[in-house]
Specification:
Strand order of the largest sheet: 8-11-6-2-16-15
Helix content: 40-55%
Structural class: alpha+beta
Radius of gyration: 39 Å
Shape: elongated
Number of strands: 18
Largest sheet: 6 strands, antiparallel
Number of domains: 3
Length: about 700
């Protein structure tokens, strides 16, 4: 403190008052690190490098090892960063470019801070960066992390005005704790209005299935234990063998790659304006809810013939589901499963596309198909012969199939006979077309891990699967899965019943929670934590206008427009009063001490007798003058004056309750007394 006083004498109080304390710098260092780490995957390497340099430089300033960098250097870094962002911004996407720009601005500002004004600017930018962390991840873990960083940033702000670190920390915790009930009230009551603008698409890396599939693509997904989606059924959960989650229909084949048809690609581009296809006839056999994880893609997941009434979902003509926007965050939607045929009347265009084979491709497979077709002329008999071949010949299901040459299906089907689901689905689809039967490949997921605590299925990336759909007269599109003939345990019991996880999604993934499956109590803990995250997604992230209306109905009964508006206004008014009270703008009346209330009672009674208290009179002078005006009770008035002074100023005398009883008795007596004229007190009267 003495040093600070001497410094004030030398440079003036205005400058020293702007000196940033070490505790503020420490909190800012921690906030800087906490903000940049979760945004690293959205940050370019050079932007991340500049941010790291700024962080290290700021740490050096904190420990007194380096000085603040020259302003010219900071300006040059800022200009170089802005120019580079302009050059690569189109490739990154608008939102990613803005995130990088804000990170760079935040980092560069931290190393040129001079006074509290600069610190406040950095802290406010930190709040904004914190909100960007929640753009594509609103899970309960991310939210808990955000609340922690929010508190840390608030602590940095408070440390500008409070000297004691412990007091600032407790006050920051108190502020955050006080804000949570307000946030909860706003979350529950405020209506879910449509957004006034749309956030630009976050150009992040896409995960999961692709709309182009070749040999070896799907088995790459078996290396990932990332969650694809969760599903919860209103009724009984179907058996694992019936859990075929359709995502993509691939109809174009060039001899190496399966792709979506041009018609479907164009339909997806215009899905918003074209809208959904017709709802299947009848009632759904299963109703369920899906929570899809962020993937950067638009395709969704459903069982067989699925249909959704969700406003954000388009039902495509090939019985698939498509989101109107890429999945940058979790998406929740309800849908039904219908026991209805798919496309009983096959359009000519679709028939032609699903019978097309590439020229000069897989000649030996074509010859085999011709031979089997001659032996089994009927469509179903021919398909039965194909499936029997997979079941009876020496085919093997493996995650590491041998390489194939130009004629992929020839090499796989007739030579090495080792493959994964895409190999077998490709061969079956090719041979079905060669036999004159419309066929297409479908990719999605098969199976699911059931969580008994919460009653939902978790579907992971390693459960990715491919199968075939063939079109039969009078039946429409029918699913055929050759995997069920070669490795039936994969379909009946799931991926883990067929493959060693250590050779698939656990290979090199040493921190995977799935490693806990072999330890019962740790696996139980894993499932319970997953249940908490699921309920967070269901009741918080999925709290839409329908759920809000259901909640208000439980609380208020039938919710009409008038009652809803009145409820919102009352809740809003109560919220404003609470905020005003917390900010000190509204002060609630505090009860007066009992001695003061007793004196006020006597003063009011005397006023009614014409003995008003002058503004300059103390209690003793006032009661003495009243005693002269009412000589019959002068002793009682003077005794009350003694008792009041003892109770009010000396903490002695009668108990406050006894003083109240004495005042009530004195009030009754005063009302019966006749007043004796007494001159008014002069301005020089003493104060009691």
């Amino acid at each position: 403190m003495a040093l600070l006083q001497r410094l004030k004498c030398l440079v003036g109080p205005a400058i020293t008052d702007e000196i940033i304390s070490r505790q503020t710098l420490l909190w800012l260092l921690l906030v800087h690190l906490a903000l940049v780490v979760p945004l690293a995957e959205k940050t370019t390497p050079w932007a991340l490098g500049i941010s790291a340099i700024c962080l290290v430089w700021r740490a050096g300033i904190f420990f007194g090892k380096v000085a603040r960098p020259p302003r010219l250097l900071v300006t040059a870094l800022g200009l170089a960063s802005a120019i580079t962002l302009m050059l690569v911004g189109r490739e990154m996407g608008v939102l990613n470019a803005l995130i990088n720009l804000l990170i760079l601005g935040y980092s560069l500002k931290t190393i040129e801070m001079l006074g509290k004004r600069d610190v406040r600017a950095v802290i406010l930018a930190g709040y904004f960066l914190l909100s960007l962390n929640l753009l594509d991840n609103q899970g309960i873990g991310a939210m808990a992390y955000a609340i922690g960083v929010f508190g840390l940033n608030t602590l940095a702000l408070l440390s500008l005005y409070r000297q004691k670190a412990a007091g600032s920390a407790m006050f920051a915790i108190k502020l955050v704790a006080q804000s949570l009930p307000l946030a909860l009230l706003l979350f529950l009551v405020l209506p879910r209005l449509p957004p006034l603008w749309v956030v630009p698409h976050l150009k992040s890396s896409t995960t999961g299935l692709s709309d182009e599939v070749g040999f070896g693509d799907v088995e790459k997904l078996t290396r990932s234990d990332a969650l694809a989606f969760r599903a919860r059924f209103d009724g009984a959960v179907p058996a694992n063998a019936n859990l075929y989650w359709r995502a993509l229909v691939l109809e174009d084949y060039d001899g190496a790659i399966w792709r979506q048809s041009e018609f479907i690609r164009e339909y997806e581009k215009q899905a918003f304006s074209l809208g959904s296809s017709r709802r299947p006839s009848g009632e759904p056999t299963d109703s369920y809810e899906v929570i899809a994880e962020p993937s950067g893609q638009r395709w969704l997941f459903g069982l067989d013939v699925a249909y959704s009434d969700a406003k954000s979902v388009v039902n495509l003509p090939d019985q698939r589901l498509l989101a109107l926007r890429p999945l940058d965050g979790r998406m929740q939607y309800r849908l039904g499963r219908y026991d209805a045929p798919m496309d009983l009347n096959l359009p000519a265009l679709s028939r032609r596309v699903n019978l097309t084979l590439p020229e000069d491709s897989n000649p030996r497979t074509l010859a085999l198909a011709k031979e089997l077709k001659q032996q089994n002329p009927g469509a179903e008999a021919y398909l039965g012969a194909l499936m029997a071949r997979f079941n009876q010949d020496a085919y093997f299901y493996t995650l590491t199939p041998p390489p194939v040459g130009r004629h992929q299906i020839d090499d796989f089907l007739l030579d090495n006979k080792r493959g994964f689901c895409v190999h077998y689905a490709s061969a079956l689809t090719f041979m079905a077309r060669a036999g004159g039967i419309p066929a297409r490949m479908v990719t999605g997921y098969q199976g699911g891990e059931y969580n008994r605590d919460a009653g939902y299925l978790s579907v992971y990336q390693y459960m990715a699967h491919a199968w075939t759909e063939v079109w039969l007269e009078g039946k429409g599109w029918v699913r055929l899965d050759p995997t069920a003939q070669i490795a039936p345990s994969r379909i009946l019991d799931g991926f883990d019943a067929t493959f060693d996880a250590s050779e698939a999604y656990l290979d090199g993934n040493y921190l995977s929670a799935h490693r806990l499956k072999g330890i019962p109590w740790l696996n139980e803990l894993r499932m319970r934590l997953a249940s908490i995250d699921y309920y967070w997604s269901l009741w918080v992230l999925g709290f839409d206008d329908n759920r809000q209306e259901q909640l208000l109905k439980r609380l208020l009964g039938s919710v009409g427009d008038t009652r809803f508006i009145v409820t919102v206004l009352i809740a809003g008014f109560a919220l404003l009063l609470l905020i005003a009270w917390q900010a000190g703008l509204l002060k609630l009346p505090t009860p007066l001490p009992l001695p003061i209330r007793a004196f006020n009672r006597v003063e009011k009674a005397l006023g009614k007798r014409g003995i008003a208290r002058a503004i300059s009179e103390g209690p003793r002078d006032y009661l003495s003058r009243a005693a002269r005006s009412l000589p019959a009770i002068s002793a009682m008035l003077l005794d009350f004056a003694d008792a009041f002074e003892a109770a009010r100023y000396r903490g002695a005398g009668p108990e406050p309750a006894d003083l109240m009883r004495q005042s009530r008795r004195l009030v009754r007596i005063i009302g019966n007394q006749a007043k004796v004229t007494e001159p008014e007190p002069t301005a020089s009267a003493s104060h009691g």
